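A favour, since you know our structure tokens better than I do. Could you add the entry underneath, on a fresh line?
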Amino acid sequence: MKDLALARLVIAGDRSSRRRLLGIIAGVMVGITVFLMLAAASQAFGERSRRSTWHQPVSASPTYLEPDTVLTPATAAIASTTDYYGDRIITVVLVAATPDTNVRVPGSDVVPRPGQYVASPALAGLISSAPANQLGDRYGERVGTLSNDAVEGPDSLVAVIGMDQWQVLAQQGPGLPPQVVTELVGHDYASQVWRIVAAIGAIATLVPVLLLIAIVTDLGAAQRAERFATLRLIGATPGQVARIAATETAATTLLGALLGIGAYLALIPVAARIVIGSSRFFPRDLLTSPAVIAATVLGTVLGAAAVAWWRTRRASIGPLGASRERSERPPRPLSLLPLLAGLAGLAAVRVVPRDSEASGTVIGCLLVGSFSLTMLGLLWAGPLLTSWSARLARRGARSAAQVISLGRLAQHPRAAFRAVGGLVVAVYTVTLFAVAITAAAGTTTPAQGAGYLSTTTLYATAGPADPAALGAAASRLDDVEGVQTVAVASMEVPRGSGSSGSSQDQEEDQDEDQEEDQSGAYTRLVLSVEDARALGAADAQSETGWVSVSSRWLADDAADPLPAEAPGEGPAPAVLLVGTDGGEGALERARTAMEASDLGLTMYPLTRSDRVEVMAMALENQFAALGYIGILIAAGVSTASLAVSTIASLLARRRVLSLLRLVGMPRDVLRRSVAYETLLPVATVLALSIGAAVYTAWVLVTGTSSRGIDWPAGSYYVVVGACLALTGAAIAASARAAGRMVAGGTVRFE
């Protein structure tokens, strides 16, 4: 009770004390909000992956579907591919099973039979709202709807289609190759890369948050020491003062943490609208467990209280005030070891063998550990680099402001660097994200013009079929509203390419094809001159009336028509090309008609624009959205950290600044000295921070994928410019505040 009465005596009627407490509460609230949101996001990615990856079975030795495979009630054949509606991508899961199968489709009570399908809630709604001849007629009869427990999010478009076994076997589109499975179960992350990036992103945004909490809980330490000295003067023991400091910090931190929980819960509906992958989040995905919330609050409160108690006991506060300011121990060169170890770890990633499954785990651990060491190493090495820079610059000091500021930086580099530590981490994080997401940069629109296949033309491959059947199907497609051209192109497969056989053999053949591709021997398509010109190959000409073009024409190359002979009369693999007029609904009507035909398509129809959409949805490209979110968080937290740390630094030095003013230092000199003290640590470490971030991003991208990095987008320079502008504003504001703070002030001496 006596401690409580003394604490009330310290706080009551003290306006500056109440402002300090409000600042601590606000800072802790922001920190707890961001921390809980990060924890929830980390949990959400795992939950989304478990729900949505059940059609991507993970196995070290998958059982590929073979032509002679006999399905049993305990097995099912499965393959996955993609379909399209407008600019939206539909995940298509093809399932073949016996009538009495024991294999269950997650989120559904039924396993669709041939001619039936089960749709996700979003796809079911889309089918209901779209004209039947544009979407509803594609997949057959809908016999069920997937529950939310089997889809990534509320916007996910998923269709589970029943097929005959031979139809599943024939699928060659992007996605899971035909396999035999005994169960369909999701897994935590779709890729090891996701684990690495999620861990690095969490650390990169968490460190500025922890710095913010540490800074705000130490706000006004010098003024608090003066009030505690008053308690010592009226008889309080050192232990009582330490307990009061711990209680005060714990109470304010607890209040800030509770407000942070409220802000976090209020922001969940807003954060759930962020689109990652194929969909937004379910709000429940972002609701972390009560145990995590309780542990966060308890850890923050106890940690802040323990630090306050330890610092108060260590300060040796007497009845006349705190003991003389402790001189900082000069930073040692050993402070560079964490940074050097982190950079060395990143270099080691480049030499780790990638020929085994365990190598992925090793690379992941190296990347996360080296990144953490590099980031913390910048904070650890900052005071040493600041001290070296100050001692070097002091040799050329010409003004009183420079001499004073450089002298303080040389004697107290840790205190000076603490004010800009959050900015250094933020710039490192921003640069890392901005450079890493350049790996996802690519063509957003397909090339168009003379020689290119029109973006309003659909194409799909068909297995060996009778030319008469293909011709009949082409005639039916020609009657679809909006269709202008229907062409059947025979495939000339180069030597080494297999058009039949097992799935494993096909993968080996694909490898051989890639080797052939390097020498320019791509698969070629044989079609009539008239059709080639109608579809975009305007310079096609041949005396035989037939030309061949590279299959790359379907992707991103201009046509290279060469004279060719008419295709043979027997069944052969073919490509069906359907050109539309681009009118409203024409493309989707043609796509639906192609899929509903009996041609036995081995891939779903797509356009060159659809290929770009698939590339845009590639795994690495999802990092861009996460990167920009990380940039916003890091920049916002660093803004708060810099403002709070600047205020805390001035409050802690008010007595010293008043003394300098008292002995006759002009106010302008005082302002410039304060500005120099903030500017030098920033200038010293900022370049190193940017360089280390670029190197980290390069290792991260090249160590987890086959891509490279490029110059960051303009948004990066805007954010860095905003950080520098913030620094300049903080320097100017702190200089003016220093002048006002000592105006008419008094200085007390022990």
